[in-house]
Design goal:
By secondary structure, the chain is mostly helical. It has eight helices and five strands, in the order ααααβββααββαα. Helix content is about 45%, strand content about 10%. β2 and β3 form a beta hairpin. Bound molecules: zinc ion. The site of zinc ion has 4 residues, from α6.
Amino acid sequence: MASCTYTVPDKAASGDNFYGAVICNQAYVDYFWNTYGFSGNKAYWDDGWGWDDCCNTSKPLARAFNGCYALTYSASDYLNDSYSAPILNWGRRYVRENVDDLRSFCGDGTAIARSKSGGLVEVYLGFFYSKDVPGRAETLIHESRHQGGKPHDANFPSGSVFGSGKSGADSSWDYEGAWMYGALYLWWYYAEGARTTSALRERARQRGNLVIDNAFATHPGFSI
Ligand SMILES: [Zn+2]
């Protein structure tokens, strides 16, 4: 961490103030640590990443925990994480069942996250400082979908903010890939999210529409 630099954007806008007021609780910290792949990976979360300062929402670990809180508790009936319920309910379960190790790295400054073999997900500075809190939950679901066996299978469409013609898109919504899972989650968070704010729900809607408009080779044909 000593070798990577970052700036902290407005924590009211990102949701880090809102969620940060809640996550500073040993029961939550223990649950997230033991459930979402942090356990066994302390070496990747200390030395400035926040292990010894895990309520400080300027540091990466607390910001990851904020995303974990949104992932875990945004369904009003969050204890129901059945796969027959909406993704707002089972997103937490899908991440729990697919991510074995979650490790932080600087990355190149703009990189968000990457899935590696064997249940390993790496998160980079962009995860902590360019994604807002619901966007971090989206990223965890996106990477979990890769772990679940769905690689990207297409190139980004012309005009895509993710890079026209570059690899990393999904062919279609019906492919049910990582972009679809993330956008579907944001859609439900916008429509039915609990323990959040109307401003964060609106941000989730906007991010979901950005994904829908830019991450599919064939546009899904709808918006949130
Ligand atoms: Zn991906």
